[in-house]
């Protein structure tokens, strides 16, 4: 029953998008569902290992860090897509469907499906950008993260926190997004994810959040290495400095020399007054 209600929510969004001409049938996802494509899928090395192979956890952590730091399940449709959904007034219907679906998931103690439903509804509310939705989105995200703590695998818990941080950034909660992403950095380290994947999360915590209505064109994915920049407010100086220090330490572990130099230069340029002379000297030698 819960899956059926979730399917109705998907159908409501897809029909509105197709009717408005912003999503062709069979094209990419809309942020509410995963749409199958004919493109070849990446090989799944985890499936070729024995279930108890210790490398399996590392592979799953790497896959989560590489794929789930992006815009999320299926991607969004951009500004035209969200404008079409707002014009079609889908919010009330989709909200009702997901409320009914979550009721069924709670009865069955289906935590992964409950987390997914909260995430999809939060994405919808963030994308529509309706005034007053920010508090509800925050409530959904908090419930999602709390439920995600009970997931058994570290990679799944990491995915939940990353997805939650992106939604909070989309509704303008920059501080909460930054704190969540640093929580994700710690989870990534604890889950034995590759240092480069952990660095990408750390960079994202420092950089400005994406525009919710610009996704997927402005996905939170580091496809090409770019100069380090900071979106943490300057009046949040100590946190900003701590984020840069965290990126520097993670970049050293990942042996990403350009990020090491960028972070060291940013610390000296923007936070020299907060650094001890010995620390300034060590950064100059970096």
Quick synopsis:
With 286 residues, the protein is an all-alpha fold.
Looking at this protein, list some descriptive labels.
286 residues; mainly alpha; 12 helices; 0% strand
Can you walk through the features of this model?
With 286 residues, the chain is mainly α. Helices cover 63% and strands 0% of the residues. The relative contact order is 0.11. The chain has 12 helices and no strands.
Structural class: mainly alpha
N-to-C span: 59 Å
Categorize the overall geometry: elongated
Helix fraction, binned, reads 55-70%
Order of helices and strands: HHHHHHHHHHHH
List the helices and strands and how they pair.
Elements: H1 2-19, H2 55-67, H3 78-88, H4 91-107, H5 111-128, H6 133-148, H7 154-170, H8 174-190, H9 195-206, H10 237-254, H11 257-270, H12 277-284
